[in-house]
């Protein structure tokens, strides 16, 4: 009996992509409890043995999905529109731009919002992996936004945390309700008002001389 040939790199890459896409499809359709090797393999239309062969197992697949950018926008995603000169801008400008793009990315990711909503009620292996991914994201964001600003303005770290949480909360609320505190959080105009408030806060909180 001839030996089975190793998968070609292109075939493997395509299968890995199908499996990563299937994780999101199962989550969106059935929720956290349905995530398993069998359900993901069925959604991808492949043998479940390929999950072990290509990723090592379900935890590794979930970790790859969390790191793929499908769930959470990477820091690079948030800043790519700003060009190479972004890091040379004043700290207040970097901070404001970061949150403007974070808002845009979160609003256009319904699956991310669905997962965030489910996390409140349920903890499992996947939520733990995604929490780790977000902690690493926060550390990278701090480096990009500028450690000097956090050292000179100690309250900036807590303010950043509150804004990240606040943006997530309002984006989640916008799935079900239109107005919050008199602002239409289902409209671009409402979010533009919130972005302007964040920019004004940055200009007041972060000294202009900070690099």
Q: If you had to describe this structure to a student in words, what would you say it looks like?
A:
The protein is mainly alpha-helical and 211 residues long. The protein folds into 2 domains: 9-67, Homeodomain-like (Arc Repressor Mutant, subunit A, Orthogonal Bundle), CATH 1.10.10.60; 75-205, no CATH class. 68% of the residues lie in helices and 2% in strands. Strands 1-2 form a two-stranded antiparallel sheet. A hairpin with a 2-residue loop joins strand 1 (179-180) and strand 2. The chain starts with 8 loop residues before the first helix and ends in a 6-residue tail after the last helix. The mean pLDDT is 87.
Can you tag this structure with a few keywords?
211 residues, mainly alpha, Arc Repressor Mutant, subunit A, 2 domains, 11 helices, globular
Strand-helix topology:
Blueprint: H1 9-30, H2 37-44, H3 49-55, H4 58-67, H5 75-79, H6 91-107, H7 110-119, H8 125-145, H9 147-152, H10 155-173, E1 179-180, E2 183-184, H11 188-205
Helix pairs in contact: 1-2, 1-3, 1-4, 4-8, 6-10, 6-11
- Count of domains: 2
Low-confidence stretches: none
Compute the CA-based radius of gyration.
20 Å
Based on secondary structure, the structural category is mainly alpha
- Write down the secondary-structure element order: HHHHHHHHHHEEH
Compact overview of the structure:
This protein is mainly α. It is 68% helix and 2% strand.
């Amino acid at each position: 009996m001839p030996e089975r040939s190793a998968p070609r790199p292109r075939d493997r890459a395509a299968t890995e992509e199908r499996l990563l896409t299937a994780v999101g499809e199962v989550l969106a359709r059935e929720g956290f409890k349905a995530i398993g090797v069998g359900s993901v393999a069925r959604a991808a239309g492949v043998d479940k043995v390929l999950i072990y062969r290509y990723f090592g197992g379900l935890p590794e697949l979930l970790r790859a999905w969390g790191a793929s950018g499908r769930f959470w926008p990477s820091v690079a995603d948030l800043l790519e529109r700003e060009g190479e000169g972004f890091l040379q801008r004043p700290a207040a400008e970097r901070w404001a731009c970061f949150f403007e793009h974070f808002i845009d990315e979160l609003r256009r990711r319904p699956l991310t919002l669905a997962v965030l909503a489910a996390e409140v009620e349920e903890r499992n292996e996947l939520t733990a992996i995604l929490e780790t991914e977000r902690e690493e994201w926060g550390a990278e964001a701090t480096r990009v936004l500028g450690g000097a600003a956090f050292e000179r303005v100690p309250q900036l770290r807590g303010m950043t945390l509150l804004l990240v949480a606040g943006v997530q909360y309002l984006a989640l609320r916008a799935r079900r309700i239109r107005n919050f505190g008199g602002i239409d959080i289902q409209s671009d105009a409402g979010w533009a008002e919130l972005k302007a408030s964040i920019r004004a806060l940055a200009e007041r909180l972060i000294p202009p001389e900070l690099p």
